């Protein structure tokens, strides 16, 4: 009950301060969809940029990718999604509500009205759509909103070989939207129908999979630490056979302590050559790799780290949410690490009605913004109120321009977590506030 209360407070603060809104809210919403407001976009972009930097820009063996969301339906037939990407659903015979069978404590009685539940059916989670001005009967025109970004990289494997001639091992990395018609979207950003993934398909020689698996496992944990998640809130879980996805021979999930329980944040899977094999058979195009050294032709195997961006945003919000007391006043705020904070610093003139202070503060703000763009100007209300507002959204530093600044080019910088203030030179600000 207490934990549920924390979740409500996080959702409410995220909405009130412009991180995340319910999707289509003025029309009563659309279940399983959320809209990112300006601070949420900034937070999400920071998470994506840090990931892209670590996994693509800082490495020589990764290629960035951005595939179309709509793909030929044959892609999903070959990948096994048309036949098997389903969750078990049951329907109540009385109120007609539908539930995910594997999420129920009692598979016989409706948790809402107590009516009898029908038999378990398989419900395919892909969103189907029609492409072009096609007639309803035209099966050729069926397409799907992709349920994972991965397939866009597998079907371009040959294109990458032909254009970049990479050596093994190498990876393709992509950040993009995925869609799943979840039976029961729930827990805010945790289980939604439209979400974003950051995925890597890392191609290796079949015998080298274990080395790559361990290397990427360590990299995922390093990334989660980069974005400030506490190690004690993260738990690795070896997914047993029978619970793994149809393509995986080994999966390790990283779970996070959300307020509603320890739940999957991201996963690392050994997909073998399942997908390349399936697309080679389905398309009749040779997808083998020719190894110049050994003169062998074979289908590489794949290690796949897959992170849900929205689950990550939620983990960061939950991890950062803090309630404490400062100066005799209680406060609730997001204690973001500097690296992910949507606003790195706020700049204020001490008094709003002193033109010389405002002019100096604007000059400091404008110069600083050229070097650290994620800063904010604030001259509303008194200094105490400005601090409270910036604390709530997780701004690590507040910079005040006062009368001394006019003569000595120093400012007051105040720390969000301790409330301590120090006097520093304007020149030193970029190094102090950059994430
Ligand atoms: N390509 C592999 C794949 O898609 P998955 O375990 O089904 O594997 C990967 O999904 C990640 O995508 C999950 O660990 C989670 O972070 C995120 N994810 C999956 N379904 C989601 C949903 N309905 N809402 C939000 N995130 C989701």
From TrEMBL:
<dbReference type="GO" id="GO:0004820">
    <property type="term" value="F:glycine-tRNA ligase activity"/>
</dbReference>
<keyword id="KW-0963">Cytoplasm</keyword>
<dbReference type="InterPro" id="IPR027031">
    <property type="entry name" value="Gly-tRNA_synthase/POLG2"/>
</dbReference>
<keyword id="KW-0547">Nucleotide-binding</keyword>
<dbReference type="GO" id="GO:0006426">
    <property type="term" value="P:glycyl-tRNA aminoacylation"/>
</dbReference>
<dbReference type="InterPro" id="IPR033731">
    <property type="entry name" value="GlyRS-like_core"/>
</dbReference>
<dbReference type="InterPro" id="IPR045864">
    <property type="entry name" value="aa-tRNA-synth_II/BPL/LPL"/>
</dbReference>
<dbReference type="GO" id="GO:1990742">
    <property type="term" value="C:microvesicle"/>
</dbReference>
<feature type="domain" description="Aminoacyl-transfer RNA synthetases class-II family profile">
    <location>
        <begin position="8"/>
        <end position="342"/>
    </location>
</feature>
<keyword id="KW-0648">Protein biosynthesis</keyword>
<comment type="similarity">
    <text>Belongs to the class-II aminoacyl-tRNA synthetase family.</text>
</comment>
<dbReference type="Pfam" id="PF03129">
    <property type="entry name" value="HGTP_anticodon"/>
</dbReference>
<keyword id="KW-0030">Aminoacyl-tRNA synthetase</keyword>
<dbReference type="GO" id="GO:0070062">
    <property type="term" value="C:extracellular exosome"/>
</dbReference>
<protein>
    <recommendedName>
        <fullName>glycine--tRNA ligase</fullName>
        <ecNumber>6.1.1.14</ecNumber>
    </recommendedName>
</protein>
<keyword id="KW-0436">Ligase</keyword>
<keyword id="KW-0067">ATP-binding</keyword>
<dbReference type="InterPro" id="IPR036621">
    <property type="entry name" value="Anticodon-bd_dom_sf"/>
</dbReference>
<dbReference type="InterPro" id="IPR002314">
    <property type="entry name" value="aa-tRNA-synt_IIb"/>
</dbReference>
<dbReference type="InterPro" id="IPR004154">
    <property type="entry name" value="Anticodon-bd"/>
</dbReference>
<dbReference type="InterPro" id="IPR002315">
    <property type="entry name" value="tRNA-synt_gly"/>
</dbReference>
<dbReference type="GO" id="GO:0005737">
    <property type="term" value="C:cytoplasm"/>
</dbReference>
<dbReference type="InterPro" id="IPR006195">
    <property type="entry name" value="aa-tRNA-synth_II"/>
</dbReference>
<dbReference type="GO" id="GO:0005524">
    <property type="term" value="F:ATP binding"/>
</dbReference>
<dbReference type="GO" id="GO:0015966">
    <property type="term" value="P:diadenosine tetraphosphate biosynthetic process"/>
</dbReference>
<dbReference type="GO" id="GO:0004081">
    <property type="term" value="F:bis(5'-nucleosyl)-tetraphosphatase (asymmetrical) activity"/>
</dbReference>
<dbReference type="Pfam" id="PF00587">
    <property type="entry name" value="tRNA-synt_2b"/>
</dbReference>
């Amino acid at each position: 009950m207490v934990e549920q209360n924390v979740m409500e407070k996080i959702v409410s603060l995220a909405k009130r301060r412009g991180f995340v809104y319910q999707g289509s809210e003025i029309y009563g919403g659309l279940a399983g969809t959320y809209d990112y407001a300006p601070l949420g976009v900034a937070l999400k972009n920071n998470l994506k940029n840090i990931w892209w930097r670590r996994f693509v820009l800082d490495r020589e063996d990764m290629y960035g990718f951005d595939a179309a969301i709509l793909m030929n339906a044959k892609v999903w037939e070959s990948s096994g999604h048309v036949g098997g990407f389903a969750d078990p659903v049951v329907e109540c015979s009385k109120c007609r509500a539908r539930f995910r069978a594997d999420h129920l404590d009692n598979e016989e009685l409706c948790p809402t009205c107590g009516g009898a539940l029908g038999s378990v059916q398989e419900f395919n989670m892909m969103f189907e759509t029609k492409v072009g001005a096609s007639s309803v009967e035209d099966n050729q025109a069926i397409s799907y909103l992709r349920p994972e970004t991965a397939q866009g990289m597998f079907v371009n494997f040959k294109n990458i070989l032909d254009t970049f001639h990479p050596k093994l091992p190498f990876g393709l990395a992509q950040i993009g939207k995925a869609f799943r018609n979840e039976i029961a979207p729930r827990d805010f950003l945790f289980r939604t129908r439209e979400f974003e993934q950051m995925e890597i398909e890392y191609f290796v020689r079949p015998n080298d999979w274990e080395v790559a698996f361990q290397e990427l496992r360590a990299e995922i944990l390093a990334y989660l630490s980069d974005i400030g998640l506490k190690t004690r809130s993260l738990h690795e879980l070896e997914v047993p056979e029978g619970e793994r996805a149809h393509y995986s021979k080994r999966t390790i999930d990283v779970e996070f302590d959300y307020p509603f329980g320890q739940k999957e944040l991201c996963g690392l899977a050994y997909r073998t050559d399942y997908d390349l094999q399936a697309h080679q058979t389905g398309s009749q195009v040779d997808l083998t790799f020719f190894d110049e050294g050994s003169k062998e032709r074979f289908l590489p195997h794949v290690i796949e780290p897959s992170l849900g961006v929205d689950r990550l945003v939620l983990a960061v919000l939950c991890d950062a949410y803090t309630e404490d007391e400062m100066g005799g006043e209680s406060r609730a705020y997001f204690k973001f690490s500097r690296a992910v904070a949507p606003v790195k610093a706020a700049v204020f003139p001490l008094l709003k009605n002193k033109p010389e202070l405002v002019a100096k503060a604007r000059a400091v703000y404008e110069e600083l913004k050229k070097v650290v763009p994620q800063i904010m100007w604030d001259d509303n209300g008194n200094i105490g109120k400005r601090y409270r507002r910036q604390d709530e959204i997780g701004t690590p530093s507040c910079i005040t321009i006062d009368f001394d600044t006019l003569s000595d080019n120093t400012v007051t910088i105040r720390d969000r977590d301790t409330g301590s203030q120090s006097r520093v030179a304007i020149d030193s600000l970029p190094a102090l506030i950059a994430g």
